[in-house]
From TrEMBL:
UniProt entry keywords in alphabetical sequence: Cell membrane, Membrane, Transmembrane, Transmembrane helix
Major subcellular site: membrane
GO CC terms: plasma membrane
Listed name of the protein: Probable membrane transporter protein
Stretches that traverse the bilayer: 108-127, 133-152, 173-204, 210-228, 240-260, 266-283
Organism listed in the record: Asaccharospora irregularis DSM 2635
Subcellular location: Cell membrane; Membrane
Family: Belongs to the 4-toluene sulfonate uptake permease (TSUP) (TC 2.A.102) family.
UniProt topology in membrane: Multi-pass membrane protein
Superkingdom: Bacteria
Alphabetized InterPro entries for the sequence: TM_pro_TauE-like
Length: 299
């Protein structure tokens, strides 16, 4: 079953890659690549996808880097650039982690399928919900999770929690499917899947390492379809995207080696930091949105 998943990832990657390279070559021939610095983009990709592989996420850091390094990508093209640029690195992440980290095939495929269904079926529902309230609830929930994980860490061991299971059965499997369906739907509201997935894996009693193939596999199945649409609509910065893809692919291999060989206790600390960081970012976004709403009302 996992072999089927890898086959799907390779097929999606090939389909996307063909459209990507064809569009880039055509644009280069027509001198439509733009004036961005591809070497800066390679550096941005190397750094952001390195940390993406560790579970931090790549979109927000990439946006920050584009601004800091004055890559001058039109704001209108940023969403497409992010998706197109990071699709290949995320597929590589998923292929690596489904190979080096043991996960029960039924659990892996069930949760990945749930995330994909959630992103499509749940999109209409989530898109109508208050994004600030979602961010606020998720931010608080992740903060509580980070504290609980820290207290249950073997080095502290003040309360039970977590586990070393590589798969789910019965009611836990059903809970995992429902949870990843919701997380897939929340992606349509701009809520990243990585940290919440890590938190869910912890509460269901699975090993911290298991979160990596689940969360990366979920995104790897979603991104190629969306990215092909951005390519067809020419809604992305070609030179910047290609540079990030090249650098990002290198960054993934470097980081995957570290994660795959990291001692379990150290990895748990990394997961706690990722969840805490994401919680802070979500709460900041929620509070910022509230301030903007208040300013509009008082204007």
């Amino acid at each position: 079953m996992v072999t089927i998943l890898r086959g799907l990832l390779i097929a999606f990657g090939a389909l996307f890659g063909g459209a990507y390279v064809k569009d880039y070559a055509k644009s280069r021939k027509q001198n439509k690549l733009g004036e961005e610095n591809i070497f800066k983009a390679i550096g941005i990709g190397l750094g952001t996808d390195f940390f993406d592989t560790l579970g931090i996420g790549a979109f927000a850091p990439t946006i920050a880097c584009l601004k800091v390094f004055k890559q001058n990508v039109d704001d209108r093209l940023i969403p497409g650039t992010l998706n197109v640029a990071h699709t290949i690195p995320v597929i590589i992440e998923a292929l690596i982690f489904t190979t080096v980290i043991k996960v029960d095939p039924v659990t892996l495929l069930s949760l990945l399928g749930a995330a994909v269904l959630g992103s499509y079926i749940g999109a209409g529902i989530i898109s109508k919900m208050d994004e600030r309230k979602i961010q606020l609830v998720m931010g608080i929930a992740l903060a509580i999770t980070a504290v609980l994980m820290l207290l249950s860490h073997p080095s502290i061991n003040l309360m039970p929690g977590g586990g070393e299971e590589t798969g789910l059965t019965g009611i836990k499997l059903i809970a995992g499917i429902i949870g990843n369906f919701i997380l897939g739907a929340l992606m349509t509201a701009g809520i990243g899947l990585y940290a919440p997935c890590m938190a869910m894996v912890y509460f269901l009693g699975m090993s911290s390492k298991v979160a990596f193939p689940i969360m990366m596999g979920s995104c790897a199945l979603l991104m190629p379809v969306a990215s092909i649409k951005f390519i067809k609509e020419e809604a992305y910065s070609r030179k910047t995207a290609m540079g990030i893809t090249i650098g990002g692919s290198i960054g993934v291999f470097i980081a995957a080696f570290l994660v795959g060989n990291m001692p379990m206790n150290l990895l748990k600390y990394l997961v706690i930091l990722v969840i805490a960081y994401t919680s802070i970012q979500m709460l900041k976004s929620a509070l910022k949105s509230k301030e903007e709403v208040n300013e509009k009302l008082s204007a």
